[in-house]
Design goal:
Layout lengths: L1 E6 L19 H9 L4 E7 L20 E4 L2 E4 L23 E7 L22 H7 L4 E7 L1 H14 L3 E10 L7 H11 L3 E3 L1 H5 L1
Parallel strand pairs: 1-2, 1-6, 2-5, 6-7, 7-8
Antiparallel strand pairs: 3-4
Helix pairs in contact: 3-4
Length: about 200
């Protein structure tokens, strides 16, 4: 059984959002198309409290893009984004949600960030996504969403580590690109881990 994981396709990651990913809205049509062809669809949702310690605004004298130590882990400081109860945390208006069987919030603990849809960044707590997919009999996952170099990459790496046959649809994802090559580096890292990288056309053919 094959599941589609929609990663963080939320207003704040789209053009005009608080943490906008360039061309991020281009993933929506790919996500909508793929939903029609897979057995199960789930979504992850970045869902931060306002006092989240990944926000630069919550650290005096720090700037967006600075890297700090947060509970023993390197943490990039981001603009406030996907704050619970705000429009920025909501899913993209044109993202079809009718087939989404379950939504998995992440990043809800102010003390630790959560790029992956499966675990926080320290692998200290699980979101429940892995157990849910296994209960449903899923053995293959296909991943699209935002952003390639953070939440998509870490979701894919964890999926592979958990034993799922894992595919990332290249044109169904876009990168933050804090550094210009981060998209390509993320694809290389995922490929090296045994994750398949395909186009939507290849996946649907």
């Amino acid at each position: 059984m094959e599941a589609l994981i929609l990663v963080d396709i939320q207003h704040d990651f789209l053009p005009g959002g608080a943490l906008a990913v360039a061309d991020g809205d281009a993933v929506i049509s790919v996500a909508n198309q793929l939903q029609l062809h897979l057995d199960l669809v789930v979504a992850t949702q970045d869902f931060h409290p306002a006092n989240h310690l990944s926000f630069a605004a919550n650290h005096s004298g720090k700037q967006i893009g600075d890297v700090i130590q947060l509970n023993g882990l390197n943490q990039v400081l981001w603009p406030n984004h996907c704050v619970q109860g705000t429009a920025g945390a909501e899913f993209a208006d044109s993202l079809q949600m009718e087939r989404v069987a379950k939504i998995f919030p992440k990043g809800t603990d102010p003390e630790i960030d959560s790029y992956s849809g499966f675990y926080d960044n320290g692998h200290r707590k699980a979101t429940g996504l892995g157990d849910y997919l296994k209960e449903k009999g899923v053995n293959r996952v296909v991943i699209v969403g935002l952003a390639t170099d953070y939440c998509v990459k870490f979701t894919a790496l964890d999926a592979k580590e958990l034993g799922f046959d894992t595919t990332v649809v290249r044109d169904g994802t876009r990168a933050v690109n804090l550094q210009p090559q981060d998209f390509d580096k993320a694809l290389e890292e995922m490929t090296a881990a045994g994750i398949k990288i395909v186009s939507a056309e290849e996946k649907l053919s």
